[in-house]
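Protocol step 4 of 5: obtain the predicted structure for the target chain.
Materials: sequence only (see below). No template structures provided, no constraints applied. The aim of this step is simply to have a reference model before the mutagenesis design in step 5. Sequence pasted as it appears in the construct record:
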Amino acid sequence: GPRLPGPTACVGIDLGLKDCATTSDGQRLEGRWFRAQEYKLATAQRARKKRRVKAIHPRIANQRKDALHQFSTALVQHNAAIFVGDVASAKLVKTRMAKSTLDAGWSMFKTMLEYKSQQAGIVFEVVNEGYTTQTCSCCGAIPPSSPKGRAGLGIREWVCSECATVHDRDMNAARNILAAGHRRLAAGIPS
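Step 4 output (structure tokens):
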């Protein structure tokens, strides 16, 4: 058949604590794929089985790396532009969320996306993600009903009190990151 032109889709990615990554079109990379290995690791550590512990660590790291490679490759293949929120992992590491922050391997994921985007000749930008969780991606308001601050961390779904849109917290953030990326490109900021 005729060769289709390259992808024209653009995607925003929210790097969260619960799922490793959520895209503006609703894909999720679960940050929990190696929990079974972690359980084995904890058991081996309690039993003080040093060799067993040594064997499990690289397995977890490899599974994570594989999942990140597959997800980043698919995103690069299907999009002409990729925008990622600028999560400051260092800030989160100081909180109770530290373990899942480090687990998620965000910096590795960003690095993969960046070099794969460069190789494919597509746009990759890190955009400011301030207020992306609180802003309604439908009407642009920051309604009283949106998740805010530490209290809002547990809120996974919310309804905009301005336009009544029901939001998945992470997908809404990813859509706002996508919109911020579009604004940057429209403003002609050289990448």
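Step 4 remarks: The beta strands are 10-14, 19-23, 28-30, 81-85, 123-127, 157-159, 166-168. The two ends are 35 Å apart (CA to CA).
Proceed to step 5.
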